[in-house]
Amino acid sequence: MTTFFEDINKLKYEGPDSDSELCYRHYDADEIVLGKRMEDQLRFAIAYWHSFAWEGGDPFGGRTFDRSWFGTTMDLAKLKADVAFELFAILGQPFFCFHDADVRPEGSNFAESTKNLEEMVDYIGGKIEQGGPKLLWGTANLFSHRRFMSGAATNPDPDVFAYSAATIKTNMDATKKLGGQNYVLWGGREGYETLLNTDLKRERAQAGRMLQMVVDYKHKIGFEGTILIEPKPQEPTKHQYDYDVATVYGFLKDFGLENEVKMNIEQGHAILAGHSFEHELAMAASLGILGSIDMNRNDYQSGWDTDQFPNNVPEVALAYYEIIKSGGFTNGGTNFDAKLRRQSLDPVDLVAAHAGGMDVCAKAFKAAAAMYEDGKLEQARDDRYADWDKPEAQKMLNGDHSLESIEDYVRQADVNPEPRSGRQERLENVVNTYL
Ligand code: XLS
Ligand code: NI
Ligand code: NI
Hints:
Elements: E1 32-33, E2 36-37, H1 38-42, E3 44-47, H2 48-53, H3 74-91, E4 95-99, H4 100-103, H5 110-129, E5 134-139, H6 158-177, E6 182-185, E7 191-192, H7 200-221, E8 226-229, E9 239-240, H8 245-254, E10 261-266, H9 267-272, H10 277-287, E11 290-295, H11 313-325, E12 334-336, H12 347-374, H13 376-385, H14 391-397, H15 403-412, H16 424-432
Parallel strand pairs: 3-4, 3-12, 4-5, 5-6, 6-8, 8-10, 10-11, 11-12
Antiparallel strand pairs: 1-2, 7-9
Helix pairs in contact: 3-5, 5-6, 6-7, 10-11, 11-12
Bound molecules: D-xylose and nickel (II) ion (2 copies).
D-xylose binds next to loops.
């Protein structure tokens, strides 16, 4: 045991009226909602990078957190893992996620970095075996080190492409070894700053080839998890190739990967793309590529990916409503891609932030489940489209009609559409009855 979380005990479900600061008020892992335990519905994961690797810096100042595990030795990496699994034991969530760079020190070359990673994978694997949470997904950090400043797969230098490909392979090996349920690719630097130095046709093709090799390797090693792309429109690069779900779907189709790769959709990234989270989820579900979510929220005024913990139950409820409608998570889950504010220095802040986030999600999930079970919203939606089920309408979609024959029909039947209410406020009122 380390001393970091000294006096903090494992959190329990105490119900909505509890006076304790550190407990679950809405998240009861064993409660059955929509036929499954809450733990199996929500599938919470904790992100290693924000909680254990990030030092609290911002563009104007450096480290604010003083953590005894910050440093570049293997011993400190193991101490970090010890503390991480102590937080996991306090929270009791079923999963975690990591990048290679979160868990191992960077070596002096590829071989040394890989050796460090393998040693840490064994160390972490031991903790999973002793009853720690499982790996929801692994991923490679192909954006922090300066070698990736002009991209990883999309770099003008083929050596960086090669280094990235080799790094992805070692991370897929690590993820498989730890029993990971997914492998994520977020293209932090897969974009560009200025067209004056960028051949975007080439870069997109490079990214497509990289992803094809990832999928080939997945099949070669028999990795049973899902390959996930995490869309984001900008930040760090100005223009990113994986802007949003619809853009990534076009990319997947282009490279023949639409049945191989799904989406890891993040709340804050959806907002940066000018969408709502539920839009991105519904779009992915409609395309059959909804995989997993990164749960967080952005500050709505700052325009940055601020990665705050979620605390808006109505918003989160609409997101889970789309997930429930799509059939719920299979390999995916709810990963807290969320970090403390840089002034939240204390160990207890880390525990409270996650517990609060889990409660927000649980409360929102229960509201979404009730909306779904009552069926009022779906009934209203079905009613709105009901005329499309009529044979004359179906003929326009199934090839039995052309523009000319539709013109004849419109003339003969004297089609003269009467607008109908979209009932938005009434539907919003229905939603509010569950919150
Ligand atoms: C950054 C991304 C990142 C991915 C994993 O904005 O959200 O944290 O989830 O590389
Ligand atoms: Ni993310
Ligand atoms: Ni993000």
